[in-house]
Amino acid sequence: MAYSQLQDVLSACVNPDRKEQMERYMRNQFIFLGVATPQRRSATKGLLRMLCKESSINWEFVDACWSSPEREYQYVGVDYLWHVREMLQPSDLLQLRRLIETKSWWDTVDTLFVVVGSLVERFPHLKSDMLSWSLDNHLWVRRVAICFQLKFKTNTDTDLLRQVILNNAEHNDFFIRKAIGWILREYSKTNPVWVSEFIAQYGERLSNLSMREGCKYIK
Questions:
Q1: What SS3 string covers 129-159?
Q2: What is residue 204's DSSP assignment?
Q3: How far apart are CA 183 and CA 23, in angstroms?
Q4: Which pLDDT belongs to residue 203?
Q5: What is the reported pLDDT for 213?
Q6: Assign residue 133 a region: left if phi > 0, alpha if psi is -120 to 50, beta otherwise?
Q7: At what angle do helices 158-166 and 192-202 cross, to 10 degrees?
Q8: Termini Cα distance of the chain
Q9: What is the pLDDT of residue 219?
């Protein structure tokens, strides 16, 4: 029912000119309808509000979004999970991981790791899963393990942050190196002393990209 409504809503927003532009931007990995983010969020606002009133996570809706060939449906699925993140339970971590591993690219993963972070912050015992994820064979699972604390600020577990970064310090993939720089840069806004000391101690193990990003706000 909800997915059928979503199809009607998004079909009314198709933009062939923007479609080609969006597909090129995402390196032609996905098919697009051509619906820009502000338009998508405005068009789906009522539907998501309705779904958020349900008593449990509607994984059937999320799965339908992920099964669609058009990328905007995955974006709506992520939007939905963000809105209902406070309803997520530890058992949902496996579902989130499945999404991270499916049709993976930074555009969905970089919102999903905030959803994962919200879950871990409420259920700290899941930190052990993040440590395991930081050594996972799947690139995007590792990126989530590095970045899930991005919005934690003073609640950041620095021991865990140190370990997940060091577990990936020599990784040669751009998205991992960028993630390390990103989390260090963001945390430096809250705790520049810790980041400065970390870089002083471990900087030789980090890539130039990670160092450049991580030091951006460090004087």
A1: HHHHHCCCCCHHHHHHHHHCCCCCHHHCCHH
A2: G
A3: 28
A4: 96
A5: 97
A6: alpha
A7: 30
A8: 54
A9: 74
Which residue's structure tokens are 């806004």? 189
Q: At a CB cut-off of 8 Å and minimum separation 6, what does 69 contact? A: 31
Tens of pLDDT along 164-195? 999 999 999 999 999 999 999 999 999 999 99
**Residue 16 to residue 203: CA distance in whole angstroms:** 47
Report the candidate in 211, 184, 207 with the shortest Cα–Cα distance to residue 195: 184
Position 19 scores a pLDDT of 97
Query: What residues contact 14, with CB distance under 8 A and at least 6 apart?
Result: 33, 34, 35
The pLDDT value recorded for residue 1 is: 82
Q: Which helix (H) or strand (E) holds 181?
A: helix 174-188
pTM passes above 0.70: yes
164 burial class (0-12, 13-18, 19+ CB within 10 angstroms)?
buried
Structure tokens that stand for 64 in this block: 């339908």
**In the chain, which stretches have pLDDT less than 50?**
none
